[in-house]
Amino acid sequence: MTSTTTQLLTEAIDLHRTGALERAEKVYREMLRVDPSQPDALHLLGVLALQSGDCESAVGYIQRAIVANGDAAEFHNNLAAAYRGAGRLDKAVESHKRALTLQPECAEIHNNLANTLREQGNLDEARTHYLRAIAINPLLTVARNNLDGNPRDSEDSTERRRIDLPASRTLPVDGEVAPGGPAATADADDLTGSQTDTTIQTVLHVGCGHAHPELLHQRFRGREWRELRLDIDPNTKPDVIASLTDMHAVDTASVDAVWSSHNIEHLFAHEVPLALGEFHRVLKPGGFVLITLPDLQQIAQLVVADKLEEVAYVSPAGPIRPLDCLFGLAPAIAQGNEFMAHRTGFTATTLQHHVAGAGFVDLTVWTTPLALWCEATKH
């Protein structure tokens, strides 16, 4: 890598870190004008495409990065994320397996591959990779939880519908990308046949932040979903101004889903049951909650490795360090947004315990690098 390219890459990551995604993209493209096959620029443009929900473009960029540098396991793992987001599960499995040939002792890749195989319906092979992940890293308890929840022994068992994307990586370490897309509702002219307004489902997006298409999970992007935005900060201009612990402005049993992305950790520990209880209250019977937040168990491994302030992954808010995962996004807090501070944290076991304690059933807990995910249903 030339000094010019290194300088541009540093500049782009700094812009990414501050949330200036459009400017970061311009610098990545400038890197490609200097060197059209520069793999880091291609890879990070793929990350940006994933963040915007454009999975097909992400596939294209990351494939080009792999042509330039086919020995980077993270490139293949991210290509799997892009394929999975595009619904191309066979290709996602192939890319995960290629990543494993380059990094065979990575428990997280084995777990991610198992999740994709399970979604594909290949339960026996999924079980093999869950077991391998556990053998490599016995501390990766989420792999054991996924294994225990694998319905391979029951022909009548069906897994709840979900989309959970594996992590996208930046240059040094695994990270999470959960691409979203624009909240969409059906216009009157689009409703045909037996479709009526009653087919539109409502997702309550709690702790929504400023309106941005990247912040709504991909599964809620379709015309069958309407986003209801809730946040404690009036500056974000939400539909409902409320805290997670007191959402009385939202009627009981009035929404079909609750989407909570990286906000429960901003509560004090004693407030977590209140928030989860509110999620349960506002859901209709049969509705579900989808939660993601930092995985302290994985983050602790980076702390032990003395990587506290290294960039761990790139999120829609910019590059994230383990320090940010523990205590909150430092640039946002420095700008006076104290809502971004973290006051509690979770492992797979404690997250499952709290969600079950709130009355949810059919729990599934899984992981992407540095992040926990949970889906559960209101009976």
Provide a concise account of the structure shown:
42% of the residues lie in helices and 15% in strands.
Describe the protein.
- The protein is of the alpha/beta class and 379 residues long.
- Helix content is 42%, strand content 15%.
- The chain has helices at residues 3-17, 21-34, 39-51, 55-68, 73-85, 89-102, 107-120, 123-136, 141-148, 272-282, 296-304, 322-327, 330-334, 348-357; strands at 201-206, 225-231, 240-241, 255-261, 283-294, 313-315, 318-320, 361-368, 371-377.
- A hairpin with a 2-residue loop joins strand 6 (313-315) and strand 7.
Primary descriptors:
379 residues; Rossmann fold; seven-stranded mixed sheet; Serine Threonine Protein Phosphatase 5, Tetratricopeptide repeat; single chain; alpha/beta; 15% strand; 2 domains; two-stranded antiparallel sheet
Low-pLDDT runs of 5+ residues are 150-198
Number of helices: 14
Structural class: alpha/beta
Strands of the biggest beta sheet: in what spatial order?
3-2-1-4-5-9-8
Radius of gyration: 20 Å
Quickly give the CATH architecture of the largest domain. Answer: Alpha Horseshoe
Q: What integer is the average pLDDT?
A: 81
Helix content: 40-55%
CATH topology of the largest domain: Serine Threonine Protein Phosphatase 5, Tetratricopeptide repeat
Oligomer: single chain
Order of helices and strands: HHHHHHHHHEEEEHEHEEHHHEE
Q: CATH H-level name of the largest domain... which superfamily?
A: Tetratricopeptide repeat domain
